[in-house]
Amino acid sequence: MLFLRKLIFVIIFLLSVCVPAVELRASETLETIQQRIVQSLSRAGARSAKWGIRITDPEDDKVLVEVNPDNAFLPASVMKVVTTATAVEKLGPDFRYRTGVYANGAMDERGVLDGDIILVGRGDPNLIDAYGDLRQPSALRNLAEKIQEMGIREITGDVIGDDSYFAPSGGGRGTVFSAEKGTLYGAPVTALSINNNVINVTARAPESGKDVTVELTPRTSHFRIRNQAVIGGADAKQTLSIQLLRNSNTLVISGTLPVSKAVTRTIVLNKPAETTAAIFKEELERKGVKVKGKVRAIHYGGVKTGIKDSWIFLTEHESMPLIRGIEIINKRSQNLHAEMLLRTLGAELRGFGSNETGIEAIKAFLVGAGIDTKNIRLYDGCGLSRENFLTPRFQTALLEFLLRRPYFDLFLNTLSVSGTDGTLRSRLSSDSVKGSIHAKTGSLNGVVTLSGYIATQSKKNLVFSIFTDRVAATETVTKTIDEICSLFVTLY
After folding, report:
1. CATH H superfamily, domain 98-171+271-320
2. Which of 231, 313, 363, 414 has the fewest CB atoms within 10 Å distance of its CB?
3. Model pTM?
């Protein structure tokens, strides 16, 4: 009777503050946790948000907490779990990208290749280890070494970057929009990618110099630099501007940079395939291979049917296992890599590398896995689109499916760890919670999400998905999500 009175009180209280009812269970400890969750959801800044929560104990087949489990929410970057889960299941954790080098002419006894050399991209987002996570040398340098070892000393034609493995995409599906950072990232999604399809430009105003110096990362002479910047006094206003002119390789640096100061800007590449080919050409030249021709690119539909069949295979670079790349996607919440992976799913599983075929591959995986897709909508691979919708029930079902797969431990390690790494490095970092939660974070304007696995102090392994929408107080909502997770770590 006492429990019934408490239950009635909680339900009335929840209704009075317009917070969805939390399903209560009989366990005294669980009841305590649920009551604490009710209090957290009712605080200022949290109660105005729309909440969706599902937390389960798969081993005991128990649902511990449910709030709007079948309502559709914007998942933000939690969408990356759907994309990467499909990839590890259908491609396998040991899948490797193969970036090939071909020629359309023969090599003579002097080592002269009479024709073009073609660098064929097949979706590898890590041809350059931009973050240092993979601890591997540049794939382009590796390929240049192989070409040199084959005895090729001169190429009479061009170095061509071929990104036709992916179909061109129009509108928002063809570029990555970083709503999470509040800016237009705009990196094009291409099958031949370099340095996350951006170049980092650093301008410095040395004390003992008249001119602003400019450095590019990755290092390349492909860009024409128009340096119009001037060095100002120590108190001068910094007005430096760095722009890549549209549809060109010209970087314009202008404005004033105070003496002894440095500024680094990330510039989105206009032509990633061409830039990749240019850097490959420079790697060849550093290895002593002379290239007489220019740099250019070919795209989907840009080569007549049958022409590629005459190309001569020279060599290829094999990437690290896919699971390593997925770790970058999930821990760093890398949007471009997730979109490239989506198109790789389409190319490998549907024979055509597009956003749409990638979504088809995901849907087929979900149906085959027996996961109910009612009330969900999939639009992209990274979660930046506001056309994606997932439910807490769907997301926990997916996580429970993964829990039973032979590769689960590998996949678990791709998620951020509380208080330790990735996007959870500075969250859930108290001694009692640190290292106990593996999860994917998500955030968009008005949206905060978290989904993954909880290891409790009593050795229970829980699955959880917490989605919020209509968020006006992001800090408060994030704190509330973390409190809910911490409650289960320490009390359940």
Report:
1. D-Ala-D-Ala carboxypeptidase C, peptidase S13 (3.50.80.20)
2. 313
3. 0.91
